Amino acid sequence: MLIEDDRIVAVGPELSVADAKVIDDATDRIVMPGLVDTHRHTWQAALRSVAVDIDLMAYLDLVGGVLASRFTSEDVRVSTLAGALECLDAGITTLQDFSHIQRRPEHADAAVAGLTEAGIRAVFGYGYSVAAGDQRTPSEVRRVRDQYFRSDAQLVTMALGGRLGRRTSVLTRRSKTGGWPRSWGCGSSSTWLRAGRASADRDAPRPGPADRGHDLCARQLAA
Questions:
Q1: What would the DSSP string read from start to end of the chain?
Q2: How much is the pTM?
Q3: What are the helix (H) ranges across 119-215?
Q4: Contact call for residues 189 and 167 (beta carbons, < 8 A)
Q5: Which residues does residue 123 pair with via DSSP β-bridges, in sequence order?
Q6: In terms of DSSP bridges, do strands 92-100 and 121-127 run parallel, antiparallel, or are they unpaired?
């Protein structure tokens, strides 16, 4: 496998390049593409195993309503870094991070720092904390975008992390009317939990390519 400027440019037997040097001998090993994790709350790495015996609603109350409010910005950075390194250790090289911990601007800064420091390829899904309510504002989301994500060619890029529940957040919904997300230059992604009610929800916003749909009907998935 030939690597040039941190990019894989060729894969094959007996590659011949005059000035290339061997950086790792992979004899008798398997070289394969990295795995892609499409849904992870990376900031929760420090909370491993705290909710193994409770249902979703109890999880939201405990993690979103109690524990999230106690995270400092440094807690967010360290936990996000640990979670991203955990991914790399498991062979995951690309990550969709639903980062619903943006209670204050410094939390967003810390989450981005953790992903960047890890060196993983990731989509930073800017999301709000359920403990703080929907406090995202155009100015703050635009600040994060302009400060950290001016290029879509970098390893870590940005999207809006939709609200967990039957509907996406107001910021994600505005994208259907040509509103905020598209003008900000970042996409949106969301988790859809329908509990069997999808077919009756005819006017539901269409899921995006990074979404996860539970109990969505065939018509909605095809859309």
A1: -EEETTEEEE--TT---TT---S---TT----PPEEEEEE-GGGGGGTTTTTTS-HHHHIIIIIIIIGGG--HHHHHHHHHHHHHHHHHTTEEEEEEEEE--SSHHHHHHHHHHHHHHT-EEEEEEE--TTT-S---HHHHHHHHHHH-S-TTSSEEEEEEPPSBSS--HHHHGGGGT-HHHHHT-EEE-EEE-TT-GGG-TTPPPP-TT-EEES--HHHHH-
A2: 0.74
A3: 138-148, 170-173, 180-184
A4: no
A5: 96, 157
A6: parallel
Q: CB burial class (10 A; 0-12, 13-18, 19+) of residue 163?
A: buried
Show Cβ contacts of residue 194 under 8 Å, excluding neighbours closer than 6 positions: 166, 201, 213, 214, 215, 216
> Which segments of the chain have a pLDDT < 70?
129-138, 162-223
Spell out the residues 6+ positions from residue 174 whose beta carbon is closer than 8 angstroms to its own. Answer: 180, 181
Domains and CATH numbers, the chain: 36-222 (3.20.20.140)
Tokens of 62: 């405990």
Task: List the structure tokens of 46.
Answer: 């420090």
- Report pLDDT digits (tens) over 110-168: 999 999 999 999 999 888 766 555 555 667 888 999 999 988 889 999 988 765 443 44
DSSP code, position 30: -
